[in-house]
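Hi, here's the filled form for the chain we discussed.

Project: internal
Contact: R.S.
Residues: 378
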Amino acid sequence: MFVKTLKAENFRNLERIELEPSEGVNIIYGENAQGKTNLLELIWLFTGFKSFRGAKDSELVRFGEDFSKTEAEFFDGRRVQKAQLVIVKKRKATLNGVEQSSPSALSAEFSAVVFSPAHLSLIKDGPAERRKFLDLALCQLSRSYQSALYSYNKILSQRARLLKDIYMRPSLEDTLDVWDEKLAEFAVFLIDKRRKYVEILSEHSKAVYEGISSGKESLKVSYSQGDFEINRKEDFVKRLRALRKEDILAGSTSVGPHRDDIKVEIDGMAARTFGSQGQQRSAAIALKLAEAEIIKEISGKSPIILLDDVLSELDISRQDYILRCLGDRQTFITCCDPYSILRSCGGKTFYVENGTLTEKSRFDIEVKPPPQCEDREI
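And the returned structure, exactly as it came back:
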């Protein structure tokens, strides 16, 4: 799939933009804090999910303005569609002129994979970031997973409130049985979907990582449930009851998908603990590129790739391999210096300054010095 046209009004610092991107690589360059990442964020929102930067909807509206409106005309592999997002306090989505019940409805039509320096948390940080990665990837592929995840989290919250009440009123403990049954039903569904996804993810990310490292290292990804592996509803209910006293004391549920993790290992060693910064970066990129391949494999759609200031941190051989991995997918790459990327690919180039986008020809870039950009450690 690919975006044919993109329009935005009052989005972040982008006052008003209109562009027709290339179906291949699009290089977005300029100095820091000019709006490069804002453009990727804008495109990402058409997946129906929240900002990958963690921003609230109200924070996406240009300062001093009352609303923001963005439009994307895109080809989904079968037909051309048109999506619109209007933000006042919250986002409202329209697809082909029909208002959607929620922005998340767009996820069935528009697919993208984003990688930014913040995504190194996939490797460096705790299990919560890896669970978030899993859930977001699966929600793009399955509406039933979206629904089950929402139900599970809702029941989990209700069970936590009940656990706190039981601590003060022990007579309420018998009511936990009902909640445990409901929680178990959704838990085993989520675990099964996650485990199957991680098996596929491991295969694809292993291949990508070996390419990035020129075959010198091997990546392994596996799903982890800690000391107890749970596959059936009955097993989950049994485990909840065995831990009930501890849960009442803690006021929270100590077992379930909300506690699980993904193990990421390089040559048999935990990447989080023993991986170098370069290895951790390469592993994170491998996971995201594998995610894109899985979306294509399962849905039949090649997702749009959004790379935020990532390639500049890699050596030339790794840059070249990643660009080759992108294949014929539409890609948006932000950078401070476009020279190294232009060496390996064509496409279109856009210069960003004070929230304004200007398309540049290859000749314009080659005869002008690159903009000054602060070094970034990721």
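Let me know if anything looks off before we file it.
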